[in-house]
């Protein structure tokens, strides 16, 4: 045996874990915890959800199902997961006011500003680099929605919050308006105690859902979820779900806005997540008038770019169909009645019929 190796001090992993939490705070993360990699019960829950076809057209959910619940298979050598949360929350009263104004566009709060993926990934990589400065090279991989990761279960096990009846992660002090990111590591760090659930008998999130997508506590039917329909779904929006969508053109926050834990949540303002292009106050007609070039220019660096211009117009056409029958609303719809996209035309025609102007 190498005498130097034999006399090398045993790493103080508890001290390292404390250092990691301090570094995470230094890089702007409001919460940080460490979890193991065992997700047996969550894997069973995921398999049941997939077996029922509740994922809609998101085929990658089924294709990579097992990997989501097996961190060590996704990144060999992983024995711990560092989970972090980054706030993006805004004033709930402001959100409700927009939802109540049928001529204004509602964009999910997370998508009003800069796309979080790149920002979080950069910060997580810096955190990983700093850990390497402390311990030397180590096996790791950073994730921010970039691979099949069961992030809410891991975050719960790391003590960041519990999975609520709306399937969102909820923190007692910070509510649920925060992003998640992970670093898979091969370091034997001490794990945190999992968060305990505090939804109790409350079912406000279930009752408020416009399309009844929360079919049971902790069970979401993505095929009915407005976030899925307006972002992930590529084809026509089922006609019976168009009216309940209201003025929501990209995502939905109702199940979070109504959650009591968000009412008094203490949040941190992240400048990069502040609204751009007046998306927190723009009218539907204004956004519907954007050309494709303008859409691409204004959504640069935004999560909204993911939907593409055609779905953007489809979504706004539905919202205009649900808006008050004003000359401006009808004129906006008629301006796209001959749009080259059959998808857009279909939804414009539906909307015009709603106003008796078909």
TrEMBL record:
GO biological-process terms attached to the record: tRNA queuosine(34) biosynthetic process
Binding residues for [4Fe-4S] cluster 2: 209, 225, 252, 255
Positions of cob(II)alamin binding: 68, 145, 166, 169, 180, 252-253
One GO location term (cellular component): cytoplasm
Cofactor, free-text remark: Binds 2 [4Fe-4S] clusters per monomer.
Keyword Metal-binding (UniProt): yes
Locations listed in the record: Cytoplasm
The enzyme's E.C. designation: 1.17.99.6
Cofactors required: cob(II)alamin; [4Fe-4S] cluster
Catalytic activity, as annotated: epoxyqueuosine(34) in tRNA + AH2 = queuosine(34) in tRNA + A + H2O
Keywords: 4Fe-4S, Cobalamin, Cobalt, Cytoplasm, Iron, Iron-sulfur, Metal-binding, Oxidoreductase, Queuosine biosynthesis, tRNA processing
One Pfam family hit: Fer4_16
Active site residues according to the UniProt entry: 145
Binding site for [4Fe-4S] cluster 1: 199, 202, 205, 259
The protein's role, per its UniProt record: Catalyzes the conversion of epoxyqueuosine (oQ) to queuosine (Q), which is a hypermodified base found in the wobble positions of tRNA(Asp), tRNA(Asn), tRNA(His) and tRNA(Tyr).
Subunit structure: Monomer.
Protein's name according to its UniProt entry: Epoxyqueuosine reductase
Biological source species: Vulcaniibacterium tengchongense
